[in-house]
């Protein structure tokens, strides 16, 4: 026997509460222990019931989701998954929620849809709840870890699984992938990265409506220009190309020595954009001139692509377990030894800079 994950569902819509509860209860690993119809009731139920995970709507009466989240993280820290609307405003509010301590989010439009996509959304929701339970959000450790100084992390030993020295390499492309916990981790990374004089590909599991807003958010804090990638964009130095949601991003050879970005709706994958597809494509074209970075996120997306990168002589950096919100995507690259360097989030900018620039 195992203890089921206890979930509190908070939404002002009776239909949403009922449907969400039904979806979650269909998993043998999850038990819905309560429902709340507004943010204030959700906060009070969180204190009383002590759930393992809370699903939290954003737009609610009495106390909205952001206000409730702030009180939950302050008084009874609990892993929270936001239920967001697929709008530009919804994307901005979701990013605010992640800054306030939410673990993850899922588009409300997807899970409450009766279309064929609802089955995939349901599977992802259940996976997110299971990952949230095992995440690093316990008490206030996650918030403290995200904002911890590099000096404190520097005291930890850094694992180099390949025995390679940290030194300048002939890198011509940087590819980065993340999922759960990724938006905040990527903000922290790009706020500290200098101009690298190479193009950068960025994969973050996000719906289409969110990626444009997120690219703008990253661009405001980064020395590197960040944009949502478009089909046939030419890869240029000091530009980061964020894969648009619901699309795959690959690299293609253009005229002369130019490389361009290709954006496509195919192939269909459960996580789109897909890190495996981007890493594979980048590795095939750039071989040992590729630096790949795998960051916090649930699941194994990216591992197969990183195997190709490793076999083609590229370098790989994996985020370490302690600084991940969910140690899913970096786990297998670390455990199998294909990651050349396993480093904390705080030290990642320095490692990338040393490998790319030699400084």
Summary tags:
359 residues, Rossmann fold, five-stranded parallel sheet, single chain, 14 helices
Q: What best-fitting shape do the alpha-carbon axes yield?
A: elongated
Report the order of strands and helices.
EHEHEHEHEHHHHEHEHEEEEHEHEHEH
Summing up helix and strand content along with how strands pair, one would put the structural category as: alpha/beta
How many structural domains in the coordinates?
Answer: 2
Task: Please outline the major beta sheet.
Answer: 7 strands, parallel
CATH class of the largest domain: Alpha Beta
Residue fraction in strands: 15-25%
Q: Please estimate the helix content.
A: 25-40%
Number of helices: 14
- Strand neighbour order, sheet with most strands: 8-9-7-6-12-13-14
Q: What is the CATH architecture term of the largest domain?
A: 3-Layer(aba) Sandwich
Estimate the mean pLDDT confidence. 90
| End-to-end separation | 53 Å
Tell me the name of the CATH homologous superfamily of the largest domain: Methylesterase CheB, C-terminal domain
The count of strands amounts to: 14
